[in-house]
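#structure-requests
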Amino acid sequence: MPTGTDTDTMRVCEVTAFGGPDVLRESSRPWPVAAPHEVVVTIAAATVNPSDIAARSGAHRARLPELQPPFVPGWDLAGVVTDVGAQTSGFTVGDPVLGMIPWIRISGRVGSYAQAAAVQPDWLAPRPDGLDEVTGATIPLNALTARQALDLIGGPPGSTLLVTGASGAVGGFAMQLAAQAGLRVLAVASPGDEEWVSGLGAIEVLPRDVDFAALAPVDALLDAVPIGARAAAAVRSGGVAVFTRRVGEIDPANGLRIETPLAHSDPDALAELARMAADGRLRTRVARTLDLADGAEAHRLVEHGGVRGKVVLTTT
């Protein structure tokens, strides 16, 4: 394992230009060294997320006008701490971890499509025994997004929550967390995923072409696709709608509270989510694992759609 000296290099998968999947290429960069308040994680697995595709295609340029190729995408990571800064506490060399790089908030200056990354300790949480690196890499961004969306909703036990994109990672995590908290969850799922979604705690599984306006009004919506105004029609007057991505203007005439959060680092919440995944209280799916060099193929799979579970890049 590299030690972080100036002569060491690592493999990365970087965006060489804005465009389609083929702009992702394997390259090499210097192995990172921990600054005083950082740790270096040797990354075993990194998950491909829709935000990575938006970064690669250039769709994030409105939000990050300074972002220019080449850059390394990637939010999620799982691996082992291999270097600790002199002024850092909480982690030691050899600790198994998982984490979320707040990629947009840091303007893409470091990404997880790499063999290693120098990161802030509060982006990480311990990876429990029984949670392997590939499974662990599917947890951080998507489960934190779900957890923080539900916190914004603040639904009490017995309230009704409609989740779109329930077949996906954010929707699936949100359903499980909400059901365990006593909410009544209605889920919109892809064809063929009804059994999986029902097993996550939905009281009813709806088809993707459902007429939202014809549903009995729900207290809250988590639009994890997102669909936008059409899905918001299902929410009662005074309810809340949370969208995982920006959508067009939605008329708040019925007093609807609208939220579009961006996931933020929360090491305590991430540690609890990791424990839940390790002991089986939080289920996740891995569809494919590919080598880091095959980042372009991974993006093609995700963009094509129909993949049941996450696509994960591995470095070994």
